[in-house]
């Protein structure tokens, strides 16, 4: 079922500071502008790599789902991995049938790439928060 | 400097159990055999994705560097990200000059892909343990 590793989600208290680190220390050359995803409670920017992306996410608003993570990890850290799937509804139903726990109400939401996504609880995924994203029409 | 996202390192108490989860729940179709890397204190296996890999790592021996991680995260979890660089010595020297902390004695070690690698302390990397790997001659 899973296809490409679309991105690794990295939580940060400051996208600006993280973008500077990726650019100046690690020499990343393409980093997107920061933008708001209010319905997900995050700011987001992408570090483009030749084959994948790092998704930098920063809390947006008081109810951001990242708040707890950053309280435990004040410097930030690896938050989730995102795999592409051909059909998000088929993937959701298959994951549920196999005993995975789909977060939220189970309805896919539109993610940062403009395609529907779901998240799977880490407890069934080897401790890893897994995002499944319907394969975008264009890479990334 | 950084090129491809070579892999995401995922620590697990059992590579067999994790491989089963990736195969049976997430539908991964290509997972390498588990093998020992005694000098790094880990067992390793790779989940092949079309553009990258998940590196499953399990403690090997009493002094495994994964023991502390798994005590804090008994189910496992995301452990590191690995970026390819063209020249590991040049990358190490550049990272040091920019204030990053190279783990161990700073001498690159041969990693699971047969090429030299170094690790950078998370405190300078936005809370993420970063592995740099000299680009393998063949993909993966």
Short description:
With 140 residues, chain A is α+β, with helices and mostly antiparallel strands. Chain A has helices at 15-25, 67-72, 88-97; strands at 5-11, 35-37, 42-48, 53-59, 77-85, 109-110, 116-120, 130-134. The model of chain A has no long low-confidence stretch (mean pLDDT 95).
Question: Care to describe what's here?
Answer:
The structure is a homodimer of 140-residue chains. The first copy, chain A, is an alpha+beta fold. Chain A has a single domain (5-134), classed as 2,3-Dihydroxybiphenyl 1,2-Dioxygenase, domain 1. Chain A is 19% helix and 32% strand. Chain A has helices at 15-25, 67-72, 88-97; strands spanning 5-11, 35-37, 42-48, 53-59, 77-85, 109-110, 116-120, 130-134. An eight-stranded mixed sheet of chain A has the order 2-3-4-1-5-8-7-6. In chain A, strand 2 and strand 3 (42-48) form a beta hairpin. The longest helix of chain A is centred in the N-terminal third of the chain and has 11 residues, at 15-25. The two termini of chain A are 18 Å apart. The model of chain A has no long low-confidence stretch (mean pLDDT 95). Chain A binds chain B through residues 1-5, 8, 10-12, 17-18, 21-22, 24-28, 49-52, 54, 73-78, 81, 83, 94-95, 98-100, 122-128, 130, and chain B through 1-5, 8, 10-12, 17-18, 21, 24-28, 49-52, 54, 73-81, 83, 94-95, 98-100, 122-128, 130. Chains A, B: This is Methylmalonyl-CoA epimerase. Chains A, B: Its EC number is 5.1.99.1. Chains A, B: Residues 4-135 form the VOC domain. Chains A, B: Belongs to the methylmalonyl-CoA epimerase family.
């Amino acid at each position: 079922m899973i296809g490409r590793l679309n991105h690794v989600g990295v939580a940060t208290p400051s996208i600006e500071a993280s973008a500077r680190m990726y650019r100046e220390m690690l020499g990343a050359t393409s980093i997107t502008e920061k933008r708001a995803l209010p319905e997900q409670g995050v700011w987001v920017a992408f570090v483009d790599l030749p084959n994948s992306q790092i998704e930098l996410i920063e809390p947006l608003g008081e109810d951001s789902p990242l708040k707890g993570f950053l309280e435990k990890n004040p410097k930030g850290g690896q938050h989730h991995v995102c795999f592409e799937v051909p059909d998000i509804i088929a993937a959701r139903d298959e994951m549920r049938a196999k005993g995975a726990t789909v977060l939220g109400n189970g309805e896919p939401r539109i993610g940062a790439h403009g395609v529907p996504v779901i998240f799977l609880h880490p407890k069934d995924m080897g401790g890893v928060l897994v995002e499944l994203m319907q394969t975008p029409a264009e890479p990334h």
